[in-house]
Amino acid sequence: MEDKIKYEMEFPIQVSPPLLYQYISTPSGLSEWYADNVNSRGEFYTFIWEGSEEKAKLLSKKSPERIKFRWLEDEGEEFYFELRIQVDEITKDVSLMITDYAEEDEIEEGKMLWENMVSNLKQILGSA
What we know:
The chain is an alpha+beta fold and 128 residues long. The chain contains 3 helices and 7 strands.
């Protein structure tokens, strides 16, 4: 299997961190912008898109800062994806920081996917 490469993205979002955290850490919140449907049983989450399912394990969660998952297909690997809320101490600007992994020829596609999904999230939150 090809090695995946870590990449990070930053999306400024004009919203309160506690509200944003609800959208990145709960199945109902994630269902509104990330996947068509999200279910959880304990530390295992099922993400559903147009009939296909992907399962992920919750690796860590810290309210109201970040949540980190690993796809079950990557079990035993160090790959994960993390959604982290960063607040600038001086300006109080809020950003959603995304860390993900992709194979080299899929990084641009992965970034475009995140841009589209975060665009949906911003619309839902009223943060253009």
